[in-house]
## 1
Amino acid sequence: MGLSETIATENEFRMALPRHAKAVFDYVKREPALKLQRWAFARAVVRRPYLATVLFVASSGERTEIWLSVSPNGDGGWSIVPVLKGAAHG
């Protein structure tokens, strides 16, 4: 994997970065603010082997998108930070 690569499918993301994928999908399922809508994986941008930014698009309700930054936190866990939420375009 290069220094910056876009992953276009959920399956590819799960295979390329399985621990990142598990952490971010678990986060989307359990985060109370995100439970109001269903979210679908749209793409991931991998900046370094340990840092990915993942785009989810609402598949129900209002058409919105959310970008989540996911990386190891140094304690064996994961840091997941919403970096942008807004109306989906396109």
## 2
Amino acid sequence: MDVEVDGILVAAHELKAPLAVLRQLALSFDGMDDKNERIRHEMVNVSERAIKQVNDLAKVKRLDDRLFEMEPVAVRAVCDDVTRELAHLFGISRRNLKIKYSNRSRLVVANRELLHSVIYNFLLNAMHYSDAETISTLTVKDKNNFVRIDIRDFGPALPNNIWREMRDGFVKQPTSIAMRPGSSGLGLYIASKFSYYMNAKVGAVRHRDGTSFYVELPVSRQAVLPGV
């Protein structure tokens, strides 16, 4: 593993304990007015998202051990889980999300845990780079022998170097994206590593008013389970 990336993983691990303490401190506050209650919720949400990315970085280090089993996964169910997890965050941030399912192939070959993180990171970007006037979309559709999950945001233009790496299907290392501050570069790196492990393809389509990030997963030939 690249030395720089390995150093980032070590640093991330060291940050996990203070982030957990920050979360617990925020949860311990009570008897606050509405304004301070919103601040408390934001502190909890920020710390939880940071802890989740630290956990994802730890998984990146474990990918070489081939510990994440590939299996038939109900793609809509994973999308539903992620959107439920982020629904509160979209709500308090006054962001809008529209979900479109048109896929006939319900099962894909993937690891449910890793796929959850890929969708989560793309949706977090969509929320971060939208506003109350825009509607981010999560679309799931068939494409040949793959199922494509497409997440549209309305953020600043994606820099050429990052777009080329996404076009080629792999972000080489966590990179700060000046036009997209926050955790965008780190999230794309995590999504790229997890997708590569699952033999899935990631990519990005640039629009005049934002970007669509997508992951394409091979269709599972297993029979569809009832209720999936």
